[in-house]
Amino acid sequence: MSESIAGVPVPDSTLAREATELVREAASPLLFDHSRRVFVWGALRGREEGVRFDPELLYVGAMFHDLGLTERFRRTDQRFEIDGADEARRFLQAQGVSGEEADRVWTAIALHTTPEIPLHMAPEIALVTRGVELDVLGIGYHAVSDEQRAAVVEAHPRPDFKNRILAAFTDGIKDRPDTTFGNIKADVLAHYVPGFVRRDFVEFVLDSPWPE
Fold first, then answer.
1. Global pTM?
2. Helix, strand or coil for residue 1?
3. How far is CA 82 from CA 15, 54, 67, 179, 208, in A?
4. How far apart are the first and last CA of the chain?
5. Among positive and negative, which fits the CA dihedral 103, 106, 108, 110?
6. How confident is the model over 169-194, as pLDDT tens digits?
7. Which site from 68, 118, 199, 206 is most exposed, i.e. has the minimal number of CB atoms within 10 Å?
């Protein structure tokens, strides 16, 4: 029997079950619970907005969106969002999902920390961002009911979540500080990594090899 959280059916296909197990094995309970909440929040926001979306693609996008923070999948030469996006596309292709659908999930994960732009794209892309924004930043907090919030948090608790997710961000990106140039994760390193100095866009332009 398919699981339901706050009235949202959790996909129970072979693809979804294998995605769940992969993330459960690779990620901490903190990131696993966060990713499951992101799916439910995204689905609830989509329902509230009357948006039609593919639940399986949204589920994979939500479940894989922070894989780049895990020890198993993190790299040091690119943004953590791309780590997760690349793994999601590999996973989907191995499951027989390719082309535009796999690219849609890749984009949803790659852009989930980029404000505003994903919200103007395909539903699954927008709803991964909606879910992340609600769980991490509280954007859209009142777009879901008190009862829905309580049901989601009962299924996937968030004890001391604010501090613990910031610690997870720090741990996942501290060894690749240059990848935070121009994105919001530079704020995390500025708060939590002693000696971190942001690259400045204006200085980057002025110091380019162009003579003028």
1. 0.96
2. coil
3. 21, 22, 9, 11, 26
4. 66
5. negative
6. 999 999 999 999 999 999 999 999 99
7. 206
